[in-house]
Amino acid sequence: MRVSFLWHFVLITICALLLKVNAWEERHCFSIDLRNSPTQGFKHKSVKDGWDVFLECTILDGDLSISMMSMPGITDDQFPVFKHLREITGSMLVFNVNGLTNLGRMFPNLRVIGGQSLIMNYALVIYQNEDLKYLGLDKLTIIRNGGVRIMDNPKLCYTRFINWDNILIGKIRDVMVDQSGGGVMFTDTNQDTETCQDKFGCKVEHPEKCQKVDGVLSCWNATTCQTSCRHHKENNDTIGPGCSVTGEKCHASCIGGCEVPDDPGSCYACRDYELNGVCVDRCPSDMYEYMNNRCVTEAGCHLKLPVKSTLQDEKMLWKAFQGKCHYDCPGGYQEDPTNPRNCVICEDYCPKRCRGTTIDSIGEAMKYSECNIIDGNLDISIQIGGQVAKAEKFTEALGNIREITGYLSVRFWPALTSLHMFKSLEIIHGEQLYNNRYALAVFEMENLRQLFNTDIEQNIQIKNGLVSFQNNPKLCYNRIFQFITHVGLDKNVSDNDISKYSNGEKAICEEVPLHVEVTTVTNVFFVISWKKILIQQIWIKENFLVI
């Protein structure tokens, strides 16, 4: 009896151990760029792997792009199938591709898009694809960061009622999906004309297991819906671990679902870090955090490919330093001049220098959150997505910039009301000038009301060049004049530089107090009086508010 019990105990223990060591055999690959034809791919010059390795990839570390395939005669079966790919850590772009009708055929098991790099504010962009009929990404459950842009795909159906809000879990959640899908018409393989029927949902055996948007089943095609999972979010609305294939709750280390419940080795993606196919909440002390999602050895860190950096373009080396695999040294440290794979502490203030650029989204702006000096020019024009990003995010992104060696231009940003996000800005050197004249140019800002915090503590210098303010209807001229006086340029600028007519014409720029006195009160009326004011002269002169 005792022997039997011991055997049962041993068997149970072995089974438990086998279950716990169950893990994916992860195969990582780098960014993929399919361009011009379905069989023509571009990869980083340092990558020696053949395309067979990419087809076996489970996690793509970087971006996936399919674009510029306009030649006639392309068909679905010419495109490669990435049947093992579960996660893309960067962004996914499908642009101007003919012949591709169903994206799900290429990516039947794609579950997570990381959004570590974005296109504008978007992690998933499907744009101008003539023949695309279905996304078909029915396994996709999580986009960690960034939004979705699906526009100008004339035959695309079943996108309007996907519950994108349930898929997007990051701080940037912009969604632009063409709402004309119900009117598209296309021809099927039998040359019969079909109309998109997405407003009627799809035919599935268990519609109660599907998500809905505006009372319509969320479907990826006519026979597959966007399944619901009661463990996708927790009770406090934070993201949950997801569901197993049987609908049970996954291990807490998972995100986006799993194969087997309560097993950190069968997660489709990891909440924190992946270590040899198993999800863990932290990396071992002898390993390094890489891209905030994986544990690597020191040697593994050093082997990572160069990337485009805010500092230099593909010239630096990865550094295993203080528990993380860094590309740029962290704040307070600089690259060791004797060993580019190491960081050394700065003896004094060592500003982080970053290359100048054009910022067109909050995602692009966040790349500069640790930058102190901009080498070159900083052009900011955010026409998409700036409405949903809070002002604090832009302060987080640009609030550490102290110097700009070139010029600063801010334009076409409808949501911006002040330039307070540049809270640390001290010097604009003007070594390069906008239109060969201006170190600071601010124009076409329809809601801008305030400039920098110069009236409190911020002392800004402009070393070379002038300033230009044009077509800012809610920015009062007197505020502009206070600023140019502060920087010592009030004697140098002309009306051509700062227009008195196109700045502040829709703003209330001065106030005239109206002192009202109640002189008589009865049970049926009262009388108020005030001193005579010349209303006509006031309104002719400027925009005033009488209070």
UniProtKB/TrEMBL annotation:
Record localization: Membrane; Secreted, Cell wall
Sorted UniProt keywords: ATP-binding, Cell wall, Glycoprotein, Kinase, Membrane, Nucleotide-binding, Phosphoprotein, Receptor, Secreted, Signal, Transferase, Transmembrane, Transmembrane helix, Tyrosine-protein kinase
Signal peptide coordinates: 1-23
Highest taxon in the source lineage: Eukaryota
GO cellular component, one term: membrane
EC number, UniProt record: 2.7.10.1
Family matches, as InterPro entries: CWI-Assembly_Regulator (IPR051648), Furin-like_Cys-rich_dom (IPR006211), Furin_repeat (IPR006212), Growth_fac_rcpt_cys_sf (IPR009030), Rcpt_L-dom (IPR000494), Rcpt_L-dom_sf (IPR036941)
SUPFAM superfamilies: Growth factor receptor domain, L domain-like
Protein's name according to its UniProt entry: receptor protein-tyrosine kinase
